[in-house]
Amino acid sequence: MSKKKILVLNGPNLNMLGKREPILYGSTTLTDIEKQMQQEWAIIDFFQTNSEANLIEKIHTADNVDFIIINPAAWTHTSVAIRDALLSVNIPFIEVHLTNIFTRESFRHKSYLSDIALAVISGFGAYGYTAAMNAAKHYIEQPII
């Protein structure tokens, strides 16, 4: 089997992990998460932005990408544009959240992506990325019908 490429997308404020509300998000930084994922999967493109336009452009130019893991952060609850971008490229994806969005404020309970995602992983902290990576590898090897 040839090497497959996974794109990991991260939305706004995730660059502040390790500093931002550590009681809620923990002390692991986004750099720590990226390093862990790079060790487990060599062909990975890891991207974080605080600009919705940049995230959409990254999705639009996802050439030769077999799978997307996305933590859209606050855009989960607001962005039809990101939803439409993901639909336009037709690449399977998993939505990841560090916290359980359903135990938080009511405005966080609605996701514009969950119904088009292959799966949603929510509430496992940084381990959610590892779980998503394992699920992505499994899906690439044995696609779910």
Strand line-up of the largest beta sheet: 2-1-3-4-5
Listing every helix as H and every strand as E from the N terminus to the C terminus, the arrangement reads: EHHEHEHEEH
**Number of distinct helices:** 5
Q: Based on the structure, what is the oligomeric state of the protein chains?
A: single chain
- The 3D shape can be described as globular
Radius of gyration: 14 Å
> Structural class given helices, strands, pairing?
alpha/beta
Give me the secondary-structure topology.
Blueprint: E1 6-10, H1 22-25, H2 30-40, E2 44-48, H3 52-60, E3 67-71, H4 80-89, E4 93-97, E5 119-122, H5 127-141
Parallel strand pairs: 1-2, 1-3, 3-4, 4-5
Written overview of the protein:
The chain has 145 residues and is α/β, with parallel strands linked by helices. It is 34% helix and 17% strand. The protein has helices at 22-25, 30-40, 52-60, 80-89, 127-141, and strands at residues 6-10, 44-48, 67-71, 93-97, 119-122. Strands 2-1-3-4-5 form a five-stranded parallel sheet, with helices on one face. Strand 3, helix 4 and strand 4 (93-97) form a beta-alpha-beta unit. Helix 3 packs parallel to helix 4. The longest helix is centred in the last third of the chain and has 15 residues, at 127-141. The protein is globular, with a radius of gyration of 14 Å. The two termini are 20 Å apart.
